Amino acid sequence: MSAPRLRVTEIFFSLQGEASRVGLPTVFVRLTGCPLRCGYCDTEYAFQGGAWMSLDDILGRVSAHPTRHVTVTGGEPLAQRDCLTLLTDLCDAGYDVSLETSGALDITGVDRRVARIVDIKTPGSGEVERNLWANLTDLTPRDEVKFVLCDAADYDWACQVLREYRLSERAAILFSPVHGRLEPAVLADWILRDGLPVRLQVQLHKLLWGEGAGR
Predict the structure, then answer these.
(1) Cis-peptide, bond into residue 210, ω within 30° of zero
(2) In angstroms, rounded to a whole number, what is the distance separating the alpha carbons of residues 84 and 6?
(3) Pairing of strands 96-101, 51-54
(4) Res. 206: pLDDT tops 80
(5) β 96-101/69-73 pair status
(6) Nearest-angstrom CA–CA distance, 201 and 192
(7) What is the greatest pairwise CA distance in the chain?
(8) 215/109 Cα distance (integer angstroms)
(9) Is there a contact between 30 and 10 (Cβ–Cβ < 8 Å)?
């Protein structure tokens, strides 16, 4: 049996731009490929290409950077089966590991030491029908749920999902405005008006280095 390997778009060292680990120096492992096509996607370059790497080579590249924080992202990282093995190997190596996933693929096989950042797709994304709602029943307090919001309709929809699944009792909730389509201050006003138990998220890397900057 051949050793597991993954198609990797890039591995880079930066500040975490999103979620509860925002601002922490982090190694990002961006895997290639995604079955979704969200209208606001800012990583379309990860849909194709990349290079095949063994898991040992990936861990070697990660270990070259001075941090214990690693984020595995994409694309959609869970679209590659051996991503699960990579996540476990990173945890075994002592890293604090987070996974950024679309929520369209099953998360139940992910190592429980990993913080799963699950992006629930809103109507404005164009991919709302791809949500795998069973994922929400597997959430733990270590996980986070992200809603990327295009407009007021997306906000209202996310509020309904928040209530229906009692998500704030399961995991931390992130509301993030689509850059250039929904002003962060407007979203902040809505959150305060409605007293939502959510965290407003803006993308730190874009504030620091501009549109198109990687995390």
Answers:
(1) no
(2) 11
(3) unpaired
(4) no
(5) parallel
(6) 14
(7) 57
(8) 26
(9) yes
pLDDT tens-digit series, residues 130-157: 999 999 999 999 999 999 999 999 999 9
The full length of the chain comes to 215
For residue 204, pLDDT over 60 is answered with: yes
Q: What are phi and psi of 126, to 5 degrees?
A: 85, 0
Q: How far apart are CA 90 and CA 186, in angstroms?
A: 39
CA gap 148, 201 in Å, rounded:
9
CB 54, CB 3: distance < 8 Å: yes
Residues 6 or more apart in contact with residue 98 via CB below 8 angstroms: 19, 21, 69, 70, 71, 72, 114, 115, 116, 117
pLDDT computed for residue 209 by the predictor: 80
Give me the domains of the chain, ranges plus CATH numbers. Answer: 5-209 (3.20.20.70)
Q: Which two tokens stand for residue 119?
A: 């992006």
